[in-house]
Amino acid sequence: MKIGIDYVKSLAIQDEYRAAHCNHGEEFGTYWHPEHTNSNDWAITLYRVCDSLVFATNGDPIWDNCAEFSELVAEYGIDIQEVLAE
């Protein structure tokens, strides 16, 4: 879903959008950890910044060029290809 960058849940990711001169972002959804389904502290939201994917977490953003990205995808059971196809 296309969104205004002010609706991105991470200031660091908002800054990346602005640095890339993007006016709109793309949000793919929020995911909860399978062992912590009732905790927003464990929720992550997937965005696209230009050609990069990034998870907004309750800490630093996790970009798709980091090993942690693949680890989160596996840990949360996210099928990235399916998400991007929707």
Commentary on this structure:
The chain is α+β, with helices and mostly antiparallel strands. 29% of the residues lie in helices and 28% in strands. It contains three helices and five strands, in the order E-H-E-E-E-E-H-H. It has helices at 11-19, 67-76, 80-85; strands spanning 2-4, 24-31, 44-49, 52-56, 62-63. A five-stranded antiparallel β-sheet has the order 1-2-3-4-5, sandwiched between helices. Strand 3 (44-49) and strand 4 form a beta hairpin. The protein is globular. The termini are close together. 19% of the residues are buried. The model has no long low-confidence stretch (mean pLDDT 91).
Radius of gyration over all CA atoms, rounded: 12 Å
Oligomer: single chain
Low-confidence stretches: none
Cα separation of the termini: 10 Å
Q: Walk across the major sheet and give the strand order.
A: 1-2-3-4-5
Biggest pleated-sheet summary: 5 strands, antiparallel
What is the helical fraction, as a range of percent? 25-40%
